[in-house]
Design a protein that fits this description.
Organism: Amycolatopsis balhimycina DSM 5908
Number of strands: 12
Structural class: alpha/beta
GO biological process, one term: RNA processing
Keywords: Methyltransferase, Transferase
CATH class of the largest domain: Alpha Beta
Strand content: 15-25%
CATH topology of the largest domain: Alpha/beta knot
Radius of gyration: 20 Å
Number of domains: 2
Largest sheet: 7 strands, parallel
CATH architecture of the largest domain: 3-Layer(aba) Sandwich
Protein name: RNA methyltransferase
Number of helices: 11
GO molecular function: RNA binding; RNA methyltransferase activity
Helix content: 25-40%
CATH superfamily of the largest domain: SPOUT methyltransferase, trefoil knot domain
Length: about 270
Amino acid sequence: MGVIHIDDSGDPRVDDFRDLSTADRRPDRPGGRGLVIAEGTVVVSRLLASRYPVHALLGVERRFAELADELAGRDVPQYVASAETMADVVGFHLNRGILAVADRPAPLAVAEVVAGTGPVAVLEGVGDHENLGALFRNAAALGVGGVLLGPGCSDPLYRRSVRVSMGHVLRVPFGYLTDWPGGLDDLRARGFSVAAFTPRPGSVPLRELRQVAPGRVALLFGAEGPGLTETALAAADHAVRIPMPAGVDSLNIATAAAIAFYELAQAD
């Protein structure tokens, strides 16, 4: 273990990092080998500090030097390569200069996701990896206790989501509501009110949400475009909107979530 210099891009020891631009061979793709891939020193540092068991790193020497403190005492292979060799392995030039791969631990149960404080985000049909990563970054920044994924959501541990979240998807607790929308009843039993975000008339303005839901809140968001399904809206306790001028009826999902997270943080 420890530092291993790699000069041959065909070395099988770095196969977990190979051909990341080839969709059907990626090790982080759903249904694939289930690896988590972190890019860049900031995200790799967060991976090293997470519950995800790191089993290898690949990068240029300068980036390993920047992570020397975090890697001290780690019994994992650190494959050092030139930028050219690394690009041959990965399939493209990686400006961030370092990658780490980790195995996925067992998913968290709903009780573990909601065990902290603050609101939780519940998502339905959020299939865009970048939107999902941005939402996790906002959740980490604005005090959200966890994220629960309903049907139709993309994989939050896909490389693009991890990168866009700046590694916060590795820190914010998340899990899955496999019973949909019945799982919302479990949240109610744990003391949550379920607030569904929708621009439809008659919904409660966001700044008035605390008047009808003073306790912990589960904030229910749908995909851009179609929004929440009628099934999800019917299962919520409250319909909530972010007031906007006439002619503007929607926001990017990560932006809408950030506004909601911030407003609740100010209200508490």
